[in-house]
Amino acid sequence: MATYISGCPGIGKTTVARALVAKGTKNVREEQGLGYHPDNDRMRWFIDTTKLRGLIRSQPDLIFLSISSNWQEVGKLPWDKKLFLSLPWEEAVPRIVSRVIEKKNTWPANAREWLDTRQCYQRRPNLFRAAGFTEIDARGTADEVVERILNQIPITISVRGSARGMVCPALESSG
């Protein structure tokens, strides 16, 4: 089941992706290698939908996490399920500030980017709903959010070993 998970900047998509992999979920992918800034415009981020369509075809159980300027076009690809992570702006701000300080992330770096991010939290949920996305509450721990996601989609878990020492093959290669 191909699943597209979106959400505003700082909502926890990368954290959720890591938690999905840690649970043994196969074929979790973020936008690296598929995204680009047209005309070097930092405020616009696009996903190459041709490459992504090929990825969906080759990995029908893909779980793709992303936010992009062309999210509506991405949402029209042949997804079996479309989800969006939701969080009130007031609860998102501490996460975003923490990400900027602790992880030295450079987004948002100026007032325009903060305004754009705030507007995403205020406007995007209604747009996601109108585009047929199912809302997932992003409050709580990553494991709690992952459980909400897994309740929405049937997945394949890849686990080897005994119940005592389970090993996820995806994590073996990462380190």
Provide the fold topology:
Blueprint: E1 3-6, H1 13-22, E2 28-29, E3 35-36, E4 46-47, H2 49-58, E5 63-65, H3 71-75, E6 81-86, H4 89-102, H5 111-130, E7 134-137, H6 142-150, H7 169-172
Parallel strand pairs: 1-5, 1-6, 2-5, 6-7
Antiparallel strand pairs: 3-4
Helix pairs in contact: 1-6
Would you mind describing this structure in some detail?
This protein has a five-stranded parallel sheet, with helices on both faces. A two-stranded antiparallel sheet has the order 3-4. It is 41% helix and 13% strand. By secondary structure, it is of the alpha/beta class. The chain is globular and about 40 Å long. It is built from seven helices and seven strands. The protein has one domain (3-170): 3-Layer(aba) Sandwich (Rossmann fold). It has helices spanning 13-22, 49-58, 71-75, 89-102, 111-130, 142-150, 169-172, and strands spanning 3-6, 28-29, 35-36, 46-47, 63-65, 81-86, 134-137. Helix 1 (13-22) crosses helix 6 (142-150).
Approximate strand percentage:
5-15%
What is the fold named in CATH at topology level?
A: Rossmann fold
Element order, helices and strands?
EHEEEHEHEHHEHH
- Topology, number of strands: 7
Structural class by helix and strand composition: alpha/beta
Tell me the overall shape.
globular
Radius of gyration, in angstroms, nearest whole number: 16 Å
